[in-house]
Amino acid sequence: MIAYALRRLLQAIPTLFVVVTLSFFLIRLAPGGPFDLERPLPPAAMENLKRLYGLDQPLIVQYGRYLLSLAKGDLGPSFSFRDLTVNDLFARGLPVSATLGSLALALALLLGLGFGTLAAFRRGRMADRLVGIGASLGLAVPTFVTAPLLQIVFGLSLAWLPVGGWDGGNPRNLVLPVITLALPQIAAIARLTRSALNEVLTQPHIRTLRAMGLPPWRVALQALRGALLPVLSTLGPVAAALLTGSVIVETIFGLPGIGRYFVDGALNRDYTLVMGTVVLVAVMVVAFNLVADLLAAVLDPRLRLGA
Amino acid sequence: MFHVEHSGPMSTATPATSLAGLARRRLIRNRPAFAALLTLVAVALACLLGPFMTGHTPERIYPDLVRTAPGFEAHPRPETVRPAIDRLAFRMRLTVEDFSERDGIVRLALTASQRIDERSLSYLPRSDLFGPPTILERSEDGRRLVVEARVQKLHFLLGTDVLGRDLLTRCLVAGRISLLIGLTATLAALLVGVTYGAVSGMLGGAVDALMMRVVDILYALPFVFFVIVLLVFFRAGLWLVLVAVAAVEWLDMARIVRTQTMSLKSRDFVRAAQALGLTTPAILARHIVPNTLGPIVVAATLLVPRVILLESFLSFLGLGVQEPATSWGVLIAEGSRALESAPWMLAAPAGLLVVSLVSLNLLGDGLADALDPRLSEPR
């Protein structure tokens, strides 16, 4: 088990390296720079600025320096947020995004698995159809439609919850963003669970359990164990995406997370901020894929031994 | 539709139903999937032909009819005609002495303290609400005119936006772009993915391992981020969006095709083709790829909605389709900004988008079921 985990960890290193290298050169190849203003700076000032941030060095030297500082966990100074490092920005924003994301993930798992199981055990009946319709809708309605709708209904018409803002993590402020984030994931997980369970329920070992007279809920638990595998395998990227924040949700609800940094950073040519976000997301994707794989290996011994 | 080649004895067998025929019949019997197919055809036709039939062009601005609510009635509405005339008369610096309206034609008696400049009457047709005026009577001193003008009958089934443009026309024109992007990007992803997967699966061995390792690494890349980098840093237009989206989405396709190819290449008809001396590319094109069409079609059908969603996400952020071109994502972004004053501006494009996406997903699921040989049902 530990050997398996270590092997997977080693496989992640080239991936991260490719991500960093690709994005570093892609961003630098693009026209424009971080200090391009409406009115250009005097050449001398520009020189000084560039020297200050090390941009006067050849690209390959900059790349080497970046890798070195990255290895130390230093993501560099932000170009657009003055006097702040990218690490500072993440230290402020990540707790917000991670709180929202983990709540949304928990909600999505709870409801997604619940609805999926319900649908599989009521195959072809009303509950199955309702879950099917709900899941298709949940997958098709984009978050940038759900978010304003929720704001209008629960924020303005009913005035139950605040329309937006963070307010120091007030639980009431979290409800709408978490629901918005969770809805498509609930739909996706419910669909996957349903089809995976349908597959498992036809297998001989489940038939045996039923024949032995086990109560339905114990059969369900046993079947879920097998059906969790396909769900788990998709969960890695989903968890990473949720925890690193959503541009849309954070913009619409006015939340100070890190979801907005990437687009803002790209628009401002804030090289280090963009790179930092890419690295963060890539690390998260790799980490959560690893967690998902390890959990899968716990559930299914074949995965540990084979391959 | 999905013609599957059989080089074996199958092709000479007596009236066995072909897989394609069976699939077609199953699909038609699958009510939701068939309804979804019809809906899609309807949406596509509406987007293609509809803009010519709404009576408006997507860019035409009606400044006097901003934020008109959806409905069947003609605009301007009867009760707004008199106030509109008063407003226009004020601008023309004329007094409305007499006003009557019959059969959609207004008759006005206009007076002024000095000679009326008849050119100022052009305010009437310029307001979108009235047709060109005809002068019936002119007083001697030119201070009084009797004028007739037709009241326009404009229809805005889905209302107008904040600038006074017909929302229906705009939604349909936007739909063309969204659907076009969905189809083209999927096609591109299909070409790259199928070729890559088939070659990788066919060659096997070290080449296959290397090619799949590349796919694995690409999988872990935060691709949406690269798309955004491309769009922002390189000032991308529609076509780059297309390419970017296709670049993200070909990976799944490659995996599916590779698995299929690996199981096919050890089958007898492929062996026979090899024994007959066919080259590997020929075997791929003639025997392998046609037999993977089923899963490919399913994956492609499910890919289209994902591409459309991705495009609308980018357009919502202002990174995708740029004005004056428009897509459902652009319209939804406009709508969510005007949500309180004109909720239909969000409802209309979002509704169309959701209906199309749900239909595509249902159709994809239906196709998957129809092409699944395990689900044999009584004929």
Write up this protein.
- Chain B: It is found in: Cell inner membrane; Cell membrane.
- Chain B: InterPro entries: BP-dependent_transpt_permease, MetI-like, MetI-like_sf, OppC_N.
- Chain B: Its main location: membrane.
- Chain B: This is Oligopeptide transport system permease protein OppC.
- The complex is a heterodimer of chains A (307) and B (379).
- Chain A is mainly alpha-helical and 307 residues long.
- Chain A is built from 13 helices and no strands.
- The longest helix of chain A has 36 residues.
- Chain A starts with a helix and ends with a helix.
- Chain B has 379 residues and is of the alpha+beta class.
- Chain B has 2 domains: 231 residues, MetI-like (MetI-like fold, Orthogonal Bundle), CATH 1.10.3720.10; 75 residues, Gyrase A, domain 2 (2-Layer Sandwich), CATH 3.30.1360.
- In chain B, 60% of the residues lie in helices and 8% in strands.
- In chain B, helix 2 packs across helix 13 and helix 5 packs across helix 12.
- Chain B is elongated.
- About 2% of the residues of chain B have low confidence.
- The chains are: A mainly alpha (307), B alpha+beta (379).
- At the A-B interface, helix 1, helix 5, helix 6, helix 10 and helix 11 of A face helix 6, helix 7, helix 11, helix 12 and helix 13 of B.
